[in-house]
């Protein structure tokens, strides 16, 4: 841990004598409230006034955990941290999860909001608060709540919205779209990998890595696959040869790839690292031979778990983007990603072995422990908005997003906007866009410049400088679309997708390597944050951008990577791709709000900000349909989906419902289930009754959100016994549509059989009524109907007597008429 002074260690001893002399000259008073000491871990008594105590405070171990335990033992259930940042709160919460901990101040957060949040947190957990002291002088006053304050029906008058209120509402929406990435200390236990068999893949040099020997030293049988030629077909053949030696394919516990450690370009490419290309080929080869073992990929310095941890390799960070897509497309053969520490000692090797047998799939091993990756809420902090000046350079300038960015730049003070792309002024709509920007008071130019050509980029920047228009802000929005299954991705396609984003970003970083910019913005994507099917190369490219932003910040340069969700109006989410994303719970964001989020992100201190409108009720179940992903465990919106609404079916009610449905026609079944859906929806929304939920009403317009949608799902599971998806009300957006779905699930056969039989009887009755047969035919039909009725009502014989039709099968007409007279009692 990097600290300014080595407190609580032997390095403090040279100053203890002088420090003791100073302390002895001070006056002490006994505390008026109980104090728990971090020296003893218990409540202090007389030692508080002893100068020697304060000398020990500087030198001895901090017994923080014991202090927390002491608080718990004395019945403390609420704690507030007083200090410049929330340093102790998370550690204390780990030690005593049953206690409420809240900080009164947080670094880079609005102080007033943070302290009020702390007070509110204590209040809702039972601490009395003198609210009058808080509101004195503010003009606040008590008001009466309307009747049924929390009923989801609106009676409030709609007033004209002021510009300030509109902005506040927009910021509130944008705040809900913001997420970040955090690394949590992991303290779990795993069974380990002793007595297992692993295939380790790497070059001849990589197979000499100390991790391989460490696995063998810990009881792992290691099979080595030397992969100096990263050919998909050859890798598949080599895997088959090795696996053929096992009694069965399942005997292989896992595949550990060291290929990703290689950073040199793949032969014949300019930007594709050989380690990334090799990992792609390995994942594809495992799919080709249907190898069921999980694939684990190793990197070094591809991630940073905290401010003091350096992200060394943005190149290797691309493997993390690829790996997350492999996990989505091939979940049955995905293990995870492990980032190794700078020094791989015995403790680190033990930790790696523990990770290989665990359930966490995105892990960093450090000398201080094991850290796991999580997506977290990241509301914006209060910061001075960035003001633009001079020239703003926008790459990918012919794209739809660049137009939105250009207008934002002009609105926020840019004197000149330069839109750089391969096509320049030849791109459709460029002349009109430049004319529109110029009419707003700024100079706008569309220039032909390939940002993957560093010399051409540097020449453009120098030319602008010479013209008196130095570049003060950069927005890198260039990118190439991709929607290709992992199994079909070629090296050529991978190189193409990487080129615009990765090589362009690397060139911009090199050209603007001094602190002369107000903003350096990289348009990244959520595909690099949590993966996206069919976008292996695109995810890898965006992971590079995220890493580059962190590296620039560490070098003291400005940089912000914004990992975007889908944009509306011309983003990559238009057309079929957009419809697919909406079904997955990722609706496109309005450009105006997205631009607001971008400006907010640039003005803040975070090098990486995720901005996406996520409907967790749809996205989380679909994302985790094939396997569990711990990545979202820290998000309240995603975590709340588990078990909400009571999903245990009521056996008696389910049986009664199915019994009633079995005796109904299809139309009656639909009406019955429609009433059920309307009643449960009304209960969730706290309406007075089912009649207030119209059959064709849209659930979203009724006020359903992700949580109420899952609550309705839970109530319907309890009522029907069906297994229903969390996104039920979005897949079937009205009560009528949902009732149709439930009928199809509950009684498809019964409904069709009953209605079919009745329909057949209707047709038979109509046919008999229209017919005019002779007496013998009428008699034969009567016999058949009587026999069928006897079987239907259970009045037929015991099955040993010859059947009626057997008796009459060879009878003459006279014998048939005689049988009817005798058996059926007809008067002839």
If you had to describe this structure to a student in words, what would you say it looks like?
- The protein is α/β, with parallel strands linked by helices and 828 residues long.
- Helices cover 45% and strands 12% of the residues.
- The chain contains 32 helices and 17 strands.
- The strands form 2 sheets. Strands 5-4-6-7-8-9-10-3-17-16-15-14-11-12-13 form a 15-stranded mixed beta sheet, with helices on both faces. It has a two-stranded parallel ribbon with strand order 1-2.
- Helix 13 links the parallel strand 11 and strand 12.
- Helix 11 runs antiparallel to helix 18 (536-554).
- The longest helix has 23 residues, at 748-770.
- Mean pLDDT is 86; it is low at 643-647, 797-802 and 824-828.
């Amino acid at each position: 841990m990097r600290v300014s002074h080595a407190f609580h260690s032997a390095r403090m001893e040279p100053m203890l004598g002088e420090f003791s002399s100073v302390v002895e000259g001070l006056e002490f008073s006994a505390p008026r409230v109980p104090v728990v000491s971090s020296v003893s871990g218990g409540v202090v008594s007389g030692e508080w006034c002893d100068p020697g105590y304060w000398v020990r405070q500087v030198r001895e171990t901090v017994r923080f955990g014991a202090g927390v335990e002491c608080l718990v033992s004395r019945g403390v259930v609420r704690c507030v941290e007083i200090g410049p940042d929330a340093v102790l709160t998370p550690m204390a919460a780990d030690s005593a999860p049953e206690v409420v901990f809240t900080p009164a101040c947080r670094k880079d957060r609005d102080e007033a909001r943070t302290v009020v949040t702390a007070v509110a947190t204590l209040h809702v957990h039972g601490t009395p608060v003198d609210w009058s002291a808080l509101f004195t002088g503010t003009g606040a006053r008590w008001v009466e709540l309307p009747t049924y304050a929390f009923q989801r029906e609106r009676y409030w008058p709609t007033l004209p919205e002021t510009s300030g209120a509109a902005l506040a509402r927009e910021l509130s929406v944008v705040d809900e779209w913001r997420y970040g990435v955090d690394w949590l200390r992991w303290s779990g236990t795993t069974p380990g990998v002793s007595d297992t068999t692993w295939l380790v893949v790497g070059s001849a040099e990589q197979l000499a890595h100390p991790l391989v020997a460490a696995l063998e030293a810990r009881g792992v049988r290691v099979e080595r696959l030397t992969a100096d030629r990263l050919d998909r077909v050859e890798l598949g053949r080599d895997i088959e040869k090795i696996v053929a030696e096992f009694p069965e394919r399942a005997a292989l516990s896992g595949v550990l790839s060291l290929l990703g450690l290689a950073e040199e370009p793949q032969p014949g490419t300019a930007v594709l690292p050989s380690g990334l290309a090799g990992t792609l080929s390995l994942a594809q080869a495992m799919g080709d031979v249907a190898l069921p073992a999980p694939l684990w990929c190793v990197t070094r310095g591809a991630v940073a778990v905290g401010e003091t941890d350096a992200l060394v390799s943005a190149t290797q960070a691309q493997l993390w983007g690829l790996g997350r897509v492999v996990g989505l497309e091939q979940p049955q053969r995905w293990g995870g990603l492990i980032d190794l520490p700078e020094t791989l000692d015995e403790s680190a090797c033990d930790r790696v072995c523990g990770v290989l047998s665990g359930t966490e799939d995105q892990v960093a091993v450090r000398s201080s422990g094991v850290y796991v990756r999580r997506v977290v809420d990241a509301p914006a902090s209060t910061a001075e908005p960035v003001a633009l000046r001079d020239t703003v350079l926008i790459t990918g300038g012919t794209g739809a997003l660049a137009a939105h960015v250009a207008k934002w730049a002009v609105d926020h003070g840019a004197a000149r906007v330069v839109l750089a792309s391969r096509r320049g002024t030849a791109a459709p709509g460029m002349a009109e866009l430049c004319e529109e920007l110029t009419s707003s008071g700024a100079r706008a130019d569309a220039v032909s410049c390939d940002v993957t050509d560093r010399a051409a980029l540097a020449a453009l920047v120098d030319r602008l400088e010479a013209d008196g228009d130095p570049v003060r802000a950069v927005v890198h929005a260039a990118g190439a679309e991709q929607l290709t299954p992992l199994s079909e991705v070629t090296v050529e396609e991978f190189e193409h997708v990487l080129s615009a984003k990765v090589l362009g970003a690397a060139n911009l970083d090199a050209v603007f390597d001094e602190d002369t910019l107000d903003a350096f913005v990289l348009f990244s994507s959520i595909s690099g944050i949590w993966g996206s099917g069919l976008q292996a190369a695109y995810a890898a490219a965006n992971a590079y951008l995220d890493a580059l932003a962190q590296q620039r910040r560490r070098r003291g340069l400005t940089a912000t990577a914004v990992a975007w969700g889908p944009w509306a109006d011309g983003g990559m989410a238009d057309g079929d791709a957009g419809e697919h994303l909406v079904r997955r719970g990722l609706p496109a964001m309005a450009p105006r709000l997205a631009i607001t989020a971008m400006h907010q992100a640039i003005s803040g201190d975070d090098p990486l900000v995720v901005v996406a409108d996520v409907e967790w009720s749809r996205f989380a179940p679909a994302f985790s349909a094939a396997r569990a992903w711990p990545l979202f465990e820290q998000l309240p919106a995603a975590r709340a989906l588990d078990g909400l609404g009571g999903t245990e079916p009521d056996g008696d009610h389910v049986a009664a419902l199915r019994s009633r449905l079995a005796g109904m026609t299809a139309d009656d079944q639909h009406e019955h289930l429609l009433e059920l859906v309307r009643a449960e929806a009304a209960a969730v929304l706290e309406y007075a009754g089912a009649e207030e939920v119209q059959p064709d009403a849209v659930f979203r317009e009724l006020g359903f959100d992700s949580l109420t949608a899952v609550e309705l799902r839970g109530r319907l599971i309890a009522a029907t016994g069906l297994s229903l998806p969390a996104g039920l009300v979005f897949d079937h957006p009205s009560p009528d549509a949902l009732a149709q779905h439930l009928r199809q699930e509950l009684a498809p056969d019964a409904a069709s059989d009953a209605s079919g039989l009745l329909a057949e009887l209707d047709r038979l009755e109509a046919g008999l009524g229209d017919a005019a047969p002779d007496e013998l035919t009428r008699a034969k039909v009567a016999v058949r109907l009587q026999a069928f009725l006897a079987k239907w009502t259970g009045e037929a014989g015991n099955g040993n007597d010859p059947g009626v039709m057997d008796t009459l099968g060879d009878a003459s007409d006279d014998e048939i008429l005689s049988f009817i007279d005798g058996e059926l009692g007809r008067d002839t």
